[in-house]
Fold this protein.
Amino acid sequence: MKGNSEKPLTERMHTDGSVVDLQTYEQAGGYQAIRKVLHAGMTPMAVTEEVKAANLRGRGGAGFQTGVKWSFVPRGKDVPNPTYLVVNGDEMEPGTFKDRLLMERDPHQLIEGAMVAAFAIEADIAYIFLRGEYTLAAERLARAIAEAYEHHYLGKNIFGAGCNLELYLHLSGGRYICGDETGLLNALEGKRANPRAKPPFPVVVGLFGKPTVVNNVETICCVPHIINNGAEWFHGLSKTNDGGTKLYGVSGKVKRPGLWELPMGTTAREIIEEHAGGMRDGLKLRGLLPGGSSTPFIVEQHLDTPMDFTEMPKAGSRLGTGTMIVLDDHTCAVGMAWNMTRFFARESCGFCTPCWSGLGWAERILRSIEDGKGKPGDLDKLAFQAKMWSPGNTFCALAPGAADPLETSMKYFREDFERHIREHRCPWS
Amino acid sequence: MLTAEEIQEIKTETAHYPKREAGCIDALKIVQRHRGWVSDESVRDIAEYLGMSATDVDSIATFYNLIFRRPVGRHVVMVCDSVSCWIMGYDRVKKHLGERLGIDHGQTTSDDRFTMLPIVCLGCCDHAPAMMVDSDLHSDLNPQKIDSALEKYK
Ligand SMILES: Cc1cc2nc3c(=O)[nH]c(=O)nc-3n(C[C@H](O)[C@H](O)[C@H](O)COP(=O)(O)O)c2cc1C
Ligand code: SF4
Ligand code: FES
């Protein structure tokens, strides 16, 4: 894994979709980062500092600085034992399809990343929490983990350096809220995945009450490359201050929907026009959700904004997962808002009232508008509901994530909502 | 009663948890793998085995999308109805499946061959619309592809 690569996360992947096995991974320079860490005598803090200097920001959507998160882990003799690392492979955010590729095609990259991360936070048990529907990823990860154990890369005294790491794969029972890190911890403990109160944060009181770091699959996959090539190199991959490359995706009615590893900070315009081939013939772009269905819409005027964690908020949105969903002019914006609100209503964990009750109500209002039964005043009701889902009014980020696309679709496509109500029908159907 | 085989699998798959109850979801999935679904009796058996109340086990079983608390057919068709698939033609897929199988979401064909259910985004949005049948992903769906996909499941 040489420092001249521009696509460190995806370059080893076979084009036929088959899996990179342990031997192929090692021939391409794999398992060098963990060797470097263990044999060159890097300390956990040194690894953490390198990742901090690289400005690797969490690819699960929130963009929290990974090295900073790791530095919060309590260390030393008096700390409750063990510390856990949990890799978040839940990927249930509608419109998101990036972690699946990483796990299916190059599972050893994730395993090595987990090894280095576990070393950095002094964890000797790690879990990969995988959504149950990802059956191919499950099969390939299980095989890769077995390969790593066979080579004594996992288990006791790995690489003869006196460190231990047990790595387990857990398949989820399936529910969007399991992706939230505290919901995930409850799910891993065998419970309902209702989120937990914060503080205490999982880095201090996490899985089974022990210090736990939760990181996204793509985040963890970046780690070995930072160790191999250094923080400065990682910065150099990016067009902005947020380090590294990013897996960007496009779905919707473009010519070539897909997923590409590109410099962090690539613009939506470049991704759509150069990589996705532009809109299908006869269709115009009306707007897009930059990173999954809980990010706010952006429209034409924002397409030249660098897609990173720092710049997207200036366009009123967020990078989220970086896999964008495109709305075209032949698709109904109200129907789209209804579809997403129905998703959030169904997946609400039911813990707090504005979310479980309000989402269901909003879903019914949106459906009636879409069916031509909307009433004047409905839009005010929706706006009121969406306000009730803002951070502070609800217990976790699911409801605010439902508010963002709804509020921005009513902002940018208000006339569409009003036409539905005025004409008593969906003008697009 | 849990079979010896089920108990053995639960033991192996949950040995690494520091608490017995932590194996609840795994246990539910193991029983479902053997029996197709999780009956009231299975809920009670799992509860007894893990030292939990049946109510607690049921509250967990009903929380998760992939645990079936009602009988299902030999094959489960899970159709993605999330946003990218909706844009790319979920309605047509659903209509075709409905006509072909003669059932709606949540129902099972009279020959017990298929149950149809909606599912959250399958992470296959660049090849939408998508569905899963049992553990297989089917993407870029159109009526012909749906028909030939279903043929494989007897
Ligand atoms: C409702 C909800 C769903 C989430 N789903 C995921 C997910 O599927 N995968 C993920 O990595 N993070 C997800 N997150 C974010 C996690 O809570 C957490 O921030 C993330 O896993 C941390 O990893 P990172 O810092 O590497 O991004 C979700 C958050 C919420 C509120
Ligand atoms: S906001 Fe929704 S998902 Fe989050 S805790 Fe409240 S009810 Fe549950
Ligand atoms: S929305 Fe259907 S696979 Fe993502």
About this structure: The two ends of chain A are 51 Å apart (CA to CA).
